[in-house]
Specification:
There is one protein chain. By secondary structure, the chain is α+β, with helices and mostly antiparallel strands. The protein contains 17 helices and 20 strands. A hairpin with a 2-residue loop joins β9 (230-240) and β10 (243-252). α4 (47-67) crosses α5 (80-92) and α15 (456-464) packs antiparallel against α16 (495-506).
């Protein structure tokens, strides 16, 4: 919190009328666990969950100092002992955050947290100490509406941090005029006893304005933010019986390039025992922009792709792409691979690519356990390029017809995915570990340390897997400029997302991963 305040030095929002960049409401983990299903309480009480929370608090407590390391004196303390309990309070409590930015790129933020009187005093004392040691001017006592608190200005006085206690809430913010930034919340507290409305059945709500966010976006992500030229996206998350229900509304200023064609479903290629299935439509324009895929001989680029996994072994992951001439496509893939990749793989000790002409199959051999392949496949009147990481389980049982009914005939469906997350979790973990061992160092810079103690991936993910059942994700095109993503599952995250998230938290560089704000300008240093 104080890190964000100091980070905004020299870039404070001028008034509440500036553009909204982001607005977040969070009911707090106590409300989530207390209002969720019985198994949520069991999961939260696991020792592994306590370990996850401890690691997360430790990483977050170090983040403010790390973010500001180029702007603070070399000997400035990190105040981890102060930030850690503040982070834990925020995680458990009801809160709201707003970030705003004006046309000149000057921005500021405000946060409201529902805290007991005792914890509010600890926040006030702790933040005063942090900001004072980081070079802010001494605090001045202030009042605003029902709020009582203090304000500290930067060295040149152009921006300031204000902290107020109003009823059950602690309000704080940073900008050129923090009083203006916080005024609507204080008025709401006076009228209704709270700064923001709490929607029944909503645990988390996030509004994100892509256009306004571009002024804040790190330079390395500028291209991504420019591509996502949506006006406003809204994410809501809440409970639905035994599940978590997530809904993301994506509103675009210009209609994304997308077209629909009747689904060519690989009904005879997908076999039991299934633990996941994914179908995507209208992806050709995206595939042709992927640098890795540009070397493959697709013309035209396919608009549909399918993926599925079987539960018999961790490596049974497959895919299929409908195409007109599968034999020619696979042959051209073999020619491109043998001329471009084969020698590199051999030099790196990563096996070799073989083209089996009489079976029209391209095989990558010599890897640990995995045997990736691509081949021509026929399903009725449809032709596919089928690929996988390992041989399919010897089973003749087809996929249930209920699976195909989720996709077939729906002309507005962009994406559909189903998985048994607990079973899929083991598969994703094993594949990720093999990838980290087998892939070239420049591809995956984080290598496994075999001497490390058990990681969160080994402890928390293993413990939580037994709670996780079906997770379903759908993306539909509601209008040319409005898309809707809906997700239903026991945790609201897929197995792949859980593995990526937990490994990110387990990284000592989380949540900034080495990013720091640039040094203050020469004028600011002189001041």
């Amino acid at each position: 919190m104080a890190g964000m305040a100091a980070a905004c030095g020299g870039a404070g929002a001028e008034s509440r009328g500036d553009a909204l960049v982001a607005r977040l409401y969070f009911a707090g983990s106590d409300a989530v666990v207390g209002g969720g299903a019985r198994w949520w309480k069991e999961m939260a009480a696991m020792p592994a969950s306590g370990e996850l929370r401890a690691v997360l608090a430790e990483r977050m407590a170090r983040a403010p100092r790390e973010l500001l390391r180029r702007r603070l004196d070399a000997g400035a303390p990190d105040h981890e002992a102060i930030f850690k309990p503040l982070w834990q309070d925020w995680w458990r409590s009801e809160s709201a955050v707003e970030i705003r930015c004006n046309a000149a790129g000057r921005w500021g933020w405000a946060m409201a947290v529902r805290l007991s009187s005792a914890r509010g005093e600890d926040w006030s004392d702790g933040l005063r100490k942090v900001l004072g040691s980081w070079g802010m001017n001494p605090a001045d006592e202030c009042r605003q509406g029902q709020g009582r608190g203090w304000e500290m200005r930067g060295r040149d006085g152009s921006e300031g941090f204000r902290f107020l206690r109003a009823g059950e809430w602690c309000l704080m913010g940073w900008s050129a005029d923090p009083a203006s930034l916080m005024a609507p919340w204080l008025s709401a507290v006076e009228r209704e006893g709270r700064p923001v409305q709490a929607d029944r059945g909503i645990w988390l709500k996030l509004d994100w304005n892509w256009a306004a966010a571009r002024s804040l976006w790190p330079s390395g992500l500028g291209k991504a933010s420019g591509q996502a030229s949506g006006s406003l996206w809204r994410l809501t998350v809440g409970p639905e019986k035994e599940n978590v229900r997530a809904r993301l509304e994506m509103n675009w200023q210009e209609a994304p390039e997308w077209s629909w064609a009747p689904w060519q479903l690989p009904t005879n290629l997908v076999r039991e025992p299934l633990i996941s299935f994914t179908a995507a439509q209208g992806v050709g324009s995206w595939l042709k922009e992927c640098d890795f895929l540009k070397r493959l001989p697709w013309n035209p680029w396919p608009d549909q792709v399918f993926f599925w996994a079987q539960g018999a072994a961790p490596f049974q992951v497959f895919g299929a792409i409908p195409t007109r001439s599968t034999t020619n496509v696979v042959r051209r893939m073999a020619e491109a691979s043998l001329s471009g990749w084969a020698s590199n793989l051999t030099q790196r000790g990563l096996g070799k690519v073989q083209w089996v002409t009489n079976e029209t199959i391209l095989v990558w051999t010599g890897l640990p356990v995995l045997v990736p392949y691509a081949c021509a496949a026929v399903d009725g009147s449809d032709r596919f390029v089928q690929f996988g990481l390992f041989a399919s389980a010897p089973n003749t049982n087809p996929a249930p017809t209920e699976l195909w009914s989720q996709v077939a005939g729906r002309s507005n469906q962009v994406f559909y995915s189903w998985e048994i997350t607990g079973e899929r979790l083991l598969q994703v973990k094993v594949l990720g570990q093999i990838l980290r061992i087998a892939a070239p160092p420049e591809t995956i810079p984080i290598r496994p340390d075999l001497n490390r103690p058990a990681t969160l991936e080994q402890t928390w993910l293993d413990a939580v897997a037994r709670f996780l059942g079906n997770t379903v994700t759908e993306i539909t095109r509601e209008t040319p400029t409005r898309y809707l993503l809906s997700r239903r599952g026991h945790l609201g995250l897929t197995a792949t997302e859980l593995v990526l998230l937990v490994n990110a938290i387990d990284d000592p560089r989380f949540p900034l991963f080495g990013y720091a704000l640039p040094p203050a300008s020469a004028d600011a240093r002189r001041r």
